[in-house]
Amino acid sequence: MIYDVVVIGGGPAGMMAAGRAGERGARVLLLEKNNQLGLKLLLTGHGRCNFTNALADKEEMINAYGKNFKFLFSAFNKFGVEDTISFFNNLGVATKEEDRGRIFPLSDRADDIKQALIKYLKKSRVEIKLDAEVKRLITENKKIVKIILNDGHELFGNNFIISTGGKSYAQTGSIGDGYSWLRKLGHKIIAPRPAIAPVTVKEKIVKNLEGLSLKDVKLSVYKNKKKIISRTGEIIFTADGLSGPAIIDLSERIGELMPGPVFLKIDFKPEIEFAKLEKKLQNDFHEAGSKMFKNYLAGLAAPKLTLIIIKLTGINEKKQINAVTKLERRALAGALKDFTLEIKELKGFASFKLDFFK
Ligand SMILES: Cc1cc2nc3c(=O)[nH]c(=O)nc-3n(C[C@H](O)[C@H](O)[C@H](O)COP(=O)(O)OP(=O)(O)OC[C@H]3O[C@@H](n4cnc5c(N)ncnc54)[C@H](O)[C@@H]3O)c2cc1C
To answer: What are the structural domains of the chain?
Structure first.
């Protein structure tokens, strides 16, 4: 048997490709190494699958894909946001729009998107083979002629679609097989790097802040003393660095700046300028003069953070605040507005845990 199209990898990309080829009349085989299709798809949008965006126009959507966005023009022209929504509606998935134009299935279940794609595969008469890991591609004149599965089976096709996914969340099956195959076939592969990832930092001091979650702090990334990018939002300290939406948003840009010394400045009080904060401290210290420094600090920062601030500023925790010197006050404002950490690395592909399946 020679298939018209053999699709390797049963994630959303492979399912769409196989379904569409089948719909167009091709004899299609879809191969998936797991015992089920679309495992990563189940993780998306915290298990709810934010599958498109209603606000973004085509240009905006394409620009979000970084430097090499242009190759997506024709794809988005042929199948845009509205097409995506009606595609799933027609397969029986009711959808809803949430803030920032994010579109989810009404049921809040990513599995509904997966089941819709499986329905599409069936309608398109795609043959599906699970537990079928492709081990080798056999080529003649740089054209794939057959593939060999883990159990030694050989499969033949006139066309092959490689949709083996990226390298993130390897537990879902995508370990980057496609990259090495394509490299061998003569394609230039740009090494993938993690994005949307937490960071680790050089300062061991963060261990003391582990678990501390702070909203509305401002993060600024510096390289060569130049501010590159800032973001205000939520952060969570981990045992060796930082996670949370704000850092995850910045992580792609941080990845571009690595290797090399890259610093992260945390402003815990972005709502007030440095000079005004100094002035406020001066007034407070004057007004509540006999208060102990550590007690004053308790009203200003989270308990875990106050311990670090005491350490960083060197101010004796028992000192009465009216005795705090100008220099110490400035150090305190600095610790609150310019808390600086050096980034060690972006957490790698392997560092993610599949909590969702626990
Ligand atoms: C936590 C998380 C949340 C996300 N949230 C969203 C979201 O809300 N919205 C959104 O649009 N995107 C989201 N994404 C991104 C989205 O999951 C991916 O863009 C999408 O899964 C990519 O689809 P794919 O088919 O290219 O690859 P994958 O989904 O990785 O599928 C590739 C498939 O190929 C199979 N495979 C690999 N190698 C072989 C082989 N040798 N032989 C046979 N089969 C093989 C794998 O087992 C896998 O099933 C999220 C991702 C993660 C990790």
So the answer is: 2-184 (3.50.50.60), 193-358 (1.10.8)
pLDDT value for 351: 54
For the whole model, what pTM was predicted?
A: 0.79
3-state DSSP call for residue 302? Answer: coil
- Longest Cα–Cα distance in the chain: 88
Which of 164, 179, 184, 352 has the most ligand 1 atoms within 8 A of CB, as the residue to mutate?
A: 164
Task: Indicate if ligand 1 lies below 6 Å from the C-beta of 174.
Answer: yes
Q: Whose CA is nearest to atom 2 of ligand 1?
A: 44
- Answer whether residue 108 shows pLDDT above 50: yes
Q: Whose CA is nearest to atom 52 of ligand 1?
A: 44
Any ligand 1 atom below 6 A from CB of 173: yes
Instruction: Report the percent of the chain where pLDDT is more than 90.
Output: 79
Helix, strand, or coil (residue 275): helix
In single-letter form, the type of residue at position 26 comes to: A
- Which stretches does DSSP call E strand in the chain? 2-8, 28-31, 52-53, 95-97, 102-105, 127-129, 134-140, 143-149, 154-162, 199-201, 213-223, 226-237, 241-243, 262-267, 339-346
Cα first-last separation, the chain: 41
The answer to whether the CB of 147 falls within 8 A of the CB of 138 is yes
pLDDT at 56 over 80: no
Task: Quickly state the pLDDT bin for 195 (edges 50, 70, 90).
Answer: confident
Q: How far apart are CA 197 and CA 250, in angstroms?
A: 9
